[in-house]
Amino acid sequence: MNRRRNVRLSIAVVALASLGVIVAGCTATPITPSPTVTKSPVATAEPTVDAAPALVPNGTADENLPFFAQIVQRVWDGGGSDAVSGRAYIDALSAAGFDKASMQVTQDMTTVGNPAESIQFSVLLGEDCLVGQVGPATGEAVSVVLPVLGTGTCLLGETRLIDW
User: Using alpha carbons only, what angle is made at residue 98 by residues 95 and 99, rounded to the nearest 5 degrees?
Assistant: First the structure.
């Protein structure tokens, strides 16, 4: 009988243990609340828009170079016969506010009547010069600031009279 009782007792212990496991599996585990993240508005800098280059009256050549270069590029980009026409650049620079009396330009044609491979034009501003160069030989519009020459002018060699 003892043996029977031990078997029953063993079955009862196993049954209770199984029941304990089952019941433990059915209980809800406590939910730990996760922290709520709230994003506060972040101040962002307003995008800055660079102002378009403009003529700086009585400014230096360095101050006026961006404006000069913009005008030169616009005429160059227009292409056609004006792309290598000194008059087109002088007229555009004058219309933009540069003093025509302070300008120089090289010839559009060679001495034998061929179109120039490049032309140069300039504006004298104080002790410096705004100098532009365009043409098939350069392949692009070039604008730089150079010191005035010992002659008080900006361009070497023979220049064209600006009489228009």
Answer: 105
84 phi and psi, to 5 degrees?
-125, 40
83 by Cβ neighbours in 10 Å (0-12 / 13-18 / 19+) ranks as middle
Query: Can you tell me which residue has the tokens 């002018």?
Result: 153
Residue type, position 5, single letter: R
Name the amino acid, one letter, at 63: E
CA distance 18 to 14: 6
Model confidence pLDDT, tens digit, residues 19-34: 444 444 555 555 555 5
For the chain, the residue count is: 164
Determine the average pLDDT of the residues in 34-59. 73
The domains of the chain are located at 61-147
Tokens of 75: 């005429």
pTM for this predicted structure: 0.69
Bridge partner list, 160: 105
Angle in degrees, CA 117, 118, 123, rounded to 5: 165
